Structure formats: C-alpha cells, structure tokens
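Students often ask why we bother encoding 3D structure as a string. The short answer is that it lets us treat folding as translation between two languages. Here is a chain of 86 residues written in the first language.
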Amino acid sequence: MHTVELLEQACAIAEQLGYQTRQEWLGGAGGGACEFAGRKWIFIDLALSVFEQLDQVTDALRQDPGIHLVELSPPMRQLLELHRAA
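And here it is in the second language, the structure alphabet:
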C-alpha cells in the first residue's frame, strides 16, 4: 500500500475516533495531536513529507485507547504495531 493511501486511511480512522484533522502549512515546526474546546484535533504539517505526515497521524492513533476498538487493515495494523488480543 502506498504512503498516500495509508495517510488517507489513517485520517479516516482518526475521524472514527472523534478527531478533527486539519492540514496546515506549519513550516515543519509543528503538528500532531491536541485537545481543546472539548474536541480532539490532529494538525498535519504540509511542509513535511507524506511519510512524516503519516507519522504525525499514526503517533496520535497509537496514543488513543480507542484504537483497539476500530477495525484496521493488516497494513495499518502493522504500521501501528498493534497486535490482536488473544
């Protein structure tokens, strides 16, 4: 699966988990997950490569306890390094 497809899939998963995603030009100096006004956000820095943008989103997903409740494709599960419960 291509990096762009994985990024799109990761953003869709983030939305399932209640995140709003926003793509902004942050000059390579920021981005990632935060919460304000009672909402969860992931800011994706467009100054970064697609791989680095994907890393910003997957870092947020790994930290969210709800990630274990979402159906993930095998490539996404591997990328997030999650293991199915026995």
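Translate back mentally: The beta strands are 19-24, 32-36, 39-45. Keep this in mind for the problem set.
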